[in-house]
Amino acid sequence: MTFRFLHSSDLHLGRPFGGYPETIRHRLREARHGAIARLAAAARAGGAGVVLLAGDTFDAETPAPDTLRQALRAMGEEADLTWVLLPGNHDSLAASELWRRIAADGPANLRALTTPAPVELAPGVWLLPAPCTQRRPGRDLTEAMDAATPAGARRIGLGHGAITDFSGEEGATGIIPPDRAARSGLDYLALGDWHGQMQVGPATWYSGTPEPDGFKHDAPGAALLVALEGAPQVTPVETAQFRWRRPVLDLLPGDDAPARLAALLPQTRARDHLIRLGVTGRLPLADRAALEAALAARAPDFGWFAADLSALAVEAQPDDLDRIDRAGALRQAAEALLAEAGNPALAAAERNTAAAALARLYALAQEVQA
Asked: 38, 187, 295, 369: least surrounded by Cβ within 10 Å?
């Protein structure tokens, strides 16, 4: 018979999201908690009764008591599913108190894998876990997946860390061999640590995080629905509330910058998008001012919005400066800012500051003259 399960990892419940405004920080934390229910819905929709979480369910070894309690309760409310938790590098076995609390307070449908001993998930289906013993174990813990299981059993490996072909999410050198599934006779190897979804081999996948937490992986958060019947059938399932996007707007003189901007930005669910916009090319001064006005008008639509105009050069003609002032202090300031904006000897940040100030000066002058 076909065995179906949902593979996910890296929920990082309790992540603080420092550096962002408190309003969006709160929404991001809530979205991570809400991923539990979305994973449950994805599992049911795909006919899976088991959810495998391949490490870093919690962001820290000492999550806040309410973060832990509410996560356990949320999993317990999805009582028709079995939740399997593997210690990752953020919530490793070194956090003995965390795993003691999970064992004491966890619901009946949760299985915390604190040893590498094989576990029977269903008749004829065995799970071979490799729990992280500490933040950086320094050795290949997936060697434990060589453990024997009954003849003819389906074998699923569950691990956390980087493969030897690349560094992990935090830059640690990989120690898991990319052919671990073949070496250990696994039908499927479910991995966590890399926050973007990635296939390593025919039977080896990183699920990625179900709710992205940064701009590194410009893709929707998702989980993997896996069906074991011969070769594994793997289907990505989107699970995220938020999208983190890094669009680039390349502009040239003659472009309608506000219209190009409107076409590039998301048209729906703007408040569930975090946008880090890069603007390149060059624009006349009036068009740059129009673009900055359009950016200021659109920014409040999004959950979080930032625009980097440091690679956008300014083209200013004498007539443009005349529209600011034909003489006097304002004209002198405009000429000085224009010179700084185009001075290659200055740092990019300084040139950008000068260009932005010149565009703002131009816009203010037009408001006064209107």
From this structure: 369
